[in-house]
Amino acid sequence: MNLSLKIDTNRQKMISVIVITVFALLFYPIKHFGQAPTLGTASSFAIFTKTGAISNIGPTNIIGDLGTDVGAVTGFPPGNIIGQVNITNSISSQAAIDVDAAYNYLTGITCGLVIGTTMGTNQTLTPNVYCLGAASTISGNLILDGLGDPNALFIIKINGALTTSVFSNVILTNSTNVCNVYWQVDGLFSLGDYSNFKGTVIANGAINLLDSSSLDGRGLSRAGAISLSNNTITLNCTEVNLPIELLSFNSNCKDQNAVLIWSTATENNTDNFIIERSKDAIDWKNIGKVEAAGNSYTLKNYSYTDHETLAQTSYYRLKQTDLDGKFEHTFIIAFENCQKNITTLEIYPNPGNGLIKLSFEGDKETFISSAVYNSFGEKIFNSNKYETEIDLSDKSDGIYFLHFNLATDVIIKKLIIE
Predict the structure, then answer these.
(1) CB-based contacts of 367: which residues, under 8 Å, 6+ apart?
(2) The pTM is what?
(3) What is the pLDDT of residues 399-414, one digit of tens each?
């Protein structure tokens, strides 16, 4: 009898614990789990500010709506908008309310992890709510890894301005969806030249998209002007990232040619890589094609040599294409043409009467000295001044050697006086 009562008592305690746990889960504030904010009317805007003007320079292309609730819009054209423009009307008024609400909602979400204010250099973040305690920067590549979950959510809260360096990139891998990436910036958001940024930015300050930078997502401000300059801004929340994980994309010089090198970690039904080159990162030319692995779950290395490099800084990107014809461009890299590093020295007439003319192609600031030696190794001329002519007409006929000394090299030329 006592044993039966003891069992019933334990069973009741277990049921009580289960009930309490269920109620705790049901009524625990859901925002602590890091739910995405509701954007309301603001969801259709690629670019919007509650208070401030929107100005543009150059052929900026925007897919999505653009608007301001207080301010003017200038620079369209030459800019192009595929979407609606709303300036101080009922739609912009509601969007301003919704941007405020989304910003305040993000403020109330509990931090999952506090990280340093210097991001990038191939740093990888996984789904979470991240908090940064002061003004922050991104340089190089910042990788957001969705761990194979297309619903993975990233919320990055910055207690200050956010600035990205030139050619920096936010890269989404492993099923990360650009529509599930949110940035709360308590201040200025400035996207560096030729940078590629992804996600929805809700800033409590001005938004500056510098020359030739691109934004895949939204730029929303609750307190500041928006400046654009030859940008590409795309609002496409049906975007599906290609089934490829690009680890690196770099370039170097070899035999005065540009060698492009890239690596992938995984590939799924990938067809090829088209190599594109530009002189200004605006107009692109297809210069080559490299077949992809198709399906791979191991490291794959690729390379392509450009034998027709430009006589200036060149820009390169890859067009990743899968077997279904879907494609996506990688981030852009800049390449200082190998020709800029070439140093050549010509002497004439040779043979001659001793009055030697010099033609030097290279950085003259690297010049240190020039010296001439006879066939016995004796120095018969020396100068620390860069000259285009050397007078050896008073020297005997014979073979001599000119040493042209640079900071990083010594060019030796044989000359004959007769």
Answers:
(1) 360, 386, 404, 405, 406, 407
(2) 0.58
(3) 888 888 877 667 888 8
d(C-alpha 140, C-alpha 250), whole Å: 12
What is the pLDDT at residue 11? Answer: 55
Q: Answer whether 197's CB lies under 8 Å from 216's CB.
A: yes
Residues 349 and 253 in one domain: no
Residue 363 reports pLDDT greater than 80: no
Instruction: For residue 234, count other CB atoms closer than 10 A to its CB.
Output: 18
Task: Kindly state whether residues 317 and 351 are assigned to the same domain.
Answer: no
Task: Give the helix/strand (H/E) hosting 98.
Answer: helix 90-108
Together in a domain, 75 and 181: yes
In a domain, 23, yes or no: no
- The DSSP call for residue 387 is -
Give backbone dihedrals phi and psi of 274, rounded to 5 degrees, phi first.
-95, 130
Do the Cβ atoms of 304 and 327 come closer than 8 Å? no
Q: Are residues 361 and 255 in the same domain?
A: no
137 close to 111: Cβ distance less than 8 angstroms:
no
Helix/strand/coil (H/E/C) assignment for every residue in 236-251: CCCCCCCCEEEEEEEE
| Span 205-227, pLDDT tens digits | 999 999 999 999 999 999 999 99
- Report pLDDT digits (tens) over 242-268: 556 677 788 887 777 888 999 887 787
Find where tokens 């014979």 sit. Answer: 398
